[in-house]
Amino acid sequence: MQCPKCGREMEKGKLTFFTAQGYTLLSFTPVSEAEKGFFKRKTVDKMILAGQEAEGWHCGGCKLLLPLLTAD
């Protein structure tokens, strides 16, 4: 996979999520929705459990980490 930030080739691996209270909520808001009020915008949410692993990519050039998660 090519890094969207610097264009270098990224290394495939696994990302593990660690949290203090046992879970983390990841919320994605599209730019088009961010302009709307907090309660009117549509987001995509993903609950992540402590210790959960996901496929991920790392760029050695700019140090970007990209997790690949499904929003189900």
Could you report the average pLDDT, rounded to the nearest whole number?
87
Tell me, briefly, the overall form: flat
Judged by helices, strands and strand pairing, the structural class is mainly beta
User: What is the straight-line distance between the termini?
Assistant: 23 Å
Give helix % range: under 10%
Strand percentage, roughly? 35-45%
SSE order, one letter for each helix or strand: EEHEEE
Spatial sequence of strands, sheet with the most strands: 1-4-5
Taking pLDDT < 50 over at least 5 consecutive residues as the criterion, the unreliable ranges are none
Our Rg estimate from Cα atoms comes to 15 Å
Individual helix count:
1
Can you summarize the main beta sheet? 3 strands, antiparallel
**Counted beta strands:** 5
| Oligomeric nature of the chains | single chain
Structure, explained:
There is one protein chain. The protein has 72 residues and is mainly beta. 6% of the residues lie in helices and 39% in strands. It has 1 helix and 5 strands. The protein has one helix at 31-34, and strands spanning 11-16, 23-28, 44-49, 53-58, 65-68. Strands 1-4-5 form a 3-stranded antiparallel β-sheet, with no helix packed on it. Strands 2-3 form a two-stranded antiparallel sheet. A hairpin with a 6-residue loop joins β4 (53-58) and β5 (65-68). The protein is flat. The two termini are 23 Å apart. The mean pLDDT is 87.
